[in-house]
Specification:
12 strands, 9 helices, six-stranded mixed sheet, 37% helix, alpha/beta, four-stranded mixed sheet, UDP-N-acetylmuramoyl-L-alanine:D-glutamate ligase
């Protein structure tokens, strides 16, 4: 989980100290990032969400808790006294990102063990489990989490990270983008090659389904019975792709919980993704946003 900070301003000159623009900061904004953004997306779409994660003993951690709880999220946040909360700082002028600075620290093993206890306590109340992996160490026990959820008959949906997907074995659904998919299976030559590699990855990991977001090619879902379902990209102006994957996995989890068909789930995921990429920074798609967009498509 992380805090997304934004410094908005204007650039009127180049620094005399180095050939870099000088940002005259005019306003600041803080948003819930990482898994906190997933939780916010869930509640924005009308569902209840419990968030289990780790923060540091600092103002950034307090801000995240305040933001998610103000948006209806039930937050179980353990404080790790040995780290600082993860922060991503973006500096923006004329709607263009000038610089992003990341402040990352891995949580300690002791706190992660306690976090796993909180996870187990929350699991019986869940209709579906989302595990959002950002490669920051929070999902050190992801294999154990999948086993516990499977034993409790709770579907597991994962937004993966890295090039070793073996730790996600047994999940109900994983949702890599095309770049992440190719990092694991190798370059894709054509559609036949894509399907072959997707089916092999699904089989190797014993997944129930696999969703790959493919930019201009839209989204492709490999279903439990190995059918390929496609949803073409929605032709809209892309403003910012930050957090689009968070929105997609949130919608897929909600769709799974309420029993939507595979095609309807995929099409709705495409709709919510098209909404958030049209907004600046880490954003969510609300029910009103979705209804408005669907009415425009009629």
């Amino acid at each position: 989980m992380m805090l997304d900070q934004y410094w908005f301003g204007a650039v009127h000159r180049i620094s005399p100290e180095a050939p870099v623009p000088v940002l005259a900061v005019q306003s600041e904004e803080a948003r819930a990032g990482g898994a906190a953004n997933v939780a916010h997306n869930i509640t924005a779409l009308g569902a209840a969400c419990e968030l289990v994660s780790v923060v540091g003993p600092d103002s950034a951690g307090e801000q995240i808790k305040e933001i998610v709880e103000s948006n209806g999220v039930s937050a179980k946040l353990l404080i790790d006294s040995k780290i600082k909360t993860i922060v991503k700082l973006r500096m923006i002028a004329q709607n263009q990102q000038l610089l992003r600075a990341d402040f990352d620290q891995m949580p300690t093993s002791e706190v992660l063990a306690r976090c796993l206890d909180d996870f187990r306590a929350s699991l019986p109340n869940a209709d579906v489990l989302i595990l959002s992996d950002y490669g920051k160490g929070g999902l050190t026990h992801v294999s154990d989490m999948i086993k516990h959820a499977t034993a409790a008959n709770v579907p597991v949906i994962i937004d993966p990270k890295g090039d070793d997907y073996s730790r996600y074995a047994g999940a109900s659904l994983i949702t890599p983008n095309m770049k992440e998919f190719e990092a694991v299976v190798g370059p894709v030559k054509d559609e036949a090659d894509f399907l072959r590699k997707a089916l092999k990855l699904k089989q190797d990991l014993n997944l129930k389904a696999l969703l790959v977001t493919r930019s201009e090619k839209g989204m492709t879902l490999i279903t439990q019975d190995n059918q390929q379902i496609n949803s073409p990209a929605i032709a809209l102006e892309v403003f910012d792709v930050s957090g689009a994957g968070d929105t997609v996995i949130s919608l897929m989890a909600l769709a799974h919980a309420i029993g939507l068909t595979a095609q309807d789930s995929l099409d709705l995921a495409n709709v919510v993704a098209s909404i958030v990429v049209g907004k600046l920074g880490t954003a969510v798609a609300s029910i009103d946003d979705v209804v408005t967009r669907l009415n425009k498509k009629k």
